[in-house]
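Technical note accompanying the year-one report. For the benefit of new consortium partners, we illustrate the data format agreed upon in the data management plan: each record pairs a sequence with a structure-token string. No post-processing was applied to the example shown here.
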Amino acid sequence: MKGVIFNILEEMVIEHKGMAVWNDILNQEMNDEGVYTAGESYPDEKLFALVHAVSKHTNLAIEEVLATFGEFLFGKLAARYPVFIEGAADLKTFLKSIDSVIHVEVKKLYNNPNLPSFTYSEPSSDVLVMYYHSPRKLCLLAEGLIRGAASHYETPIQLSHPVCMHQGAPKCELSVRFL
């Protein structure tokens, strides 16, 4: 996992809970100083440990931490890398560009970013089904990112997750209804 993700998780905790909580997480739960370089890669287990520690210190379920972080993450990534969203006029266009545009650009910026992949179907003009594939199984983070994108594009959505890798499926199905 790239350090930028750790940096933004730190920002979220500090912004919502304060520096003391972040320091408690690092001092009590982690075996390092909590210094992460944006372009460096860190083991996925380190992110999972941090998310678990945030959950413990905030009394939020891990699922809630991941979803909240996903929403927060979208805004921060959009601010840091505006070029990723400039070409998309609306939410649907943006979501459909994740694999073919955004992830291509991320691969130019970072060596071996280990990104999820998406395939899509459009059963109707107001529904986009995103099929999420990743050994990390961070589909709840993906849900949060989708909600963050919907907020950015000021597009109300209804998001459902009827099929999930956490329940044995080979991929997750994230259904976005544009309201």
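Partners are asked to follow this layout when depositing records. The chain has two domains: 3-60, 81-178.
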